[in-house]
Amino acid sequence: MRMYLHTGIRDYILLESWVPKTNGAYCGAWLGTFLLGMCYPLIDFIRSRAMVRWLRMIQRSKGWRISEGIHIQRAFFRIIGVSIAYLLMLIIMNFNLGLLLAAILGIGLGSYFFERDSLQYLRKNPNTGKVDDPCCV
Most buried among 35, 71, 99, 133, by the most CB within 10 A? Predict the structure, then answer.
């Protein structure tokens, strides 16, 4: 394993059997890394939407006791998000410049597509003039 940024295509990617040996296989690995990068902000997007739904459920129940189901769902989203982040980290640690760019572009493009609606939840409080926390609006 080369411990410097390089542009070769014959690198182990997560598994011993996943070594691209042709340009087509490397393009597939690049695309897979790119899509995995896009999944990272997607999971955050889904979790934030679910969080709004969970908060509404809690407010409607007239109590602040969170059910076990919500805890399990939150833990599930955290596990998936952390797993994707660690997989991306391991791919990037190959020091392959193309795969590094695939991960960065995937996260960036995923953030562009999935986080563009998140600004609509920010509202200014008319009393203070400050932006309210979107989870508590």
Answer: 99
Return the number of other C-beta atoms located less than 10 Å from residue 123's C-beta: 11
User: What's the mean pLDDT in 2-9?
Assistant: 88
What pLDDT digit, counting tens, does each position of 48-90 carry? 888 888 877 777 776 556 677 788 888 999 999 999 999 999 9
- Residues 6 or more apart whose CB falls under 8 angstroms from that of 7 comprise 96, 97, 98
Q: What is the pTM of this model?
A: 0.81
Which amino acid makes up residue 91? I
β partners of residue 15? 13
Sign of CA dihedral 51, 106, 28, 99: negative
Q: CB atoms < 10 A from the CB of 27, how many?
A: 13
Q: What is the pLDDT of residues 116-125, one digit of tens each?
A: 766 655 555 5
Phi, psi of 61 (to 5 degrees): -80, 0
3-state helix, strand, coil in the chain (%, to 5): 65, 5, 30
Mean pLDDT confidence for 115-137: 61
Angle at the Cα of 105 (from 101 to 107), degrees rounded to 5?
120
